[in-house]
Amino acid sequence: MGTASLCSSILLFTLIFHSCLHYNAAVGTEREALEIIIGGGGGGYPPPSPSPPPPRPPPPLSSRPPPPRSPCPPPPRPPRLPLSPRPNPTLSPRPNPPSNGFVSKNIERDYHIIQRFKKLITSDPMKITKKWVGKDVCNYPGFRCATVPDHKVTALAAADFNGYHFGGRDLQLTGFLDQLPDLSVFHANSNNFTGPIPKSIGNARNLLEVLFLNNELEGCLPYEIGKLNKAVVFDVGSNKLTGPIPHSFACLKKMEILNLAVNKFYGPVPEMVCDLPRLANLSLSYNYFTQVGPECRKLIKKRILDVRMNCILDLPGQRSAADCAKFFSKKRTCPNERSLSYIPCRKGGYSSSLETSDQQSMAPAAAPITYNALKPHKLRL
């Protein structure tokens, strides 16, 4: 019986021991599962000595997918579109590129005008026109080029034929001077230009200096000369020009030197011409002018106006009565005489008082009667 009691005790102990082992194993398993879920122990239980591999930590920030790009502004697009048209101006600049060997369209236009004019010159004692070859007009003798300020292009700026003695059967200014709109200087002293000064001279509004001195020009002065409002020098001395001074000369506000001497001009000298603000030299000598007013007489006293050898009755140094009578014995008229009283720079255009004065002065019969009644000594010759 004692043996049976001992065996029962051992069996009971064994059962209790196995149940404890089973409980501890269950508890350890649950703790491990709990640690995996919450990322580490709780409640102060020490980790088991042979700690299993640590639980996988949450993915690091670097391995997380990048945040959406919407909060950050996208990088600027490469400036392909704005840059692509920029080279175009260099390829096709505003001033048209030289074509046909000319530096500008202005020079190309002037080249053809010069070549046409060259054909009219049949007398060229200095052989100037033989050098007018090629398309480089700017290097022709007698021509100078410059840049037009308003358009930034090269153009013909000056023609200087002084002393060249050009001649020809029909060597006229028409079709040449009036076709060179960029010219600022035209000097043609001592040549053989014939015919009238063209009305289209008013188109050459950039002219500053105009010298027709000592040529064979004929006819009356066109009123269009008054459109040359930039001109400072106008010299038609020693030609065969005639008629009254156009009243349009009152528009030449920048004129400093005005020479009409040694021609066949007649009539009264317009007061408005003597009243030009910058006038420094007005030469009207050796003509057939008949009257000067108060403003002109002031210029005579200042030695600005020269009216020697005219037909002004009360002034010294005038032509003889016989000479004046002979001149006025012939009827002298100009085409479109009314235009001679036109003043393009003034409102209304015409001045009735000046127009009447001109009409009276242009009557050819009055002067011979007056001069026939004069004695030569009263002219102080």
From TrEMBL:
Ranges of compositional bias, category Pro residues: 45-98
Query: Where does this protein reside within or beyond the cell?
Result: Secreted
Q: Where is this region: Disordered?
A: 38-104
Cellular component terms per the entry's GO annotation: extracellular region
User: Which positions carry the signal peptide feature in this UniProt record?
Assistant: 1-26
Q: What is its main location?
A: secreted
Q: Which UniProt keywords apply?
A: Leucine-rich repeat, Repeat, Secreted, Signal
UniProt cross-references to SUPFAM superfamilies, sorted A to Z: L domain-like
Under InterPro entries, the record lists: LRR_dom_sf, LRR_extensin-like_regulator
Query: By what name is this protein known?
Result: Leucine-rich repeat-containing N-terminal plant-type domain-containing protein
Give the classification, highest ranks: Eukaryota, Viridiplantae, Streptophyta, Embryophyta, Tracheophyta
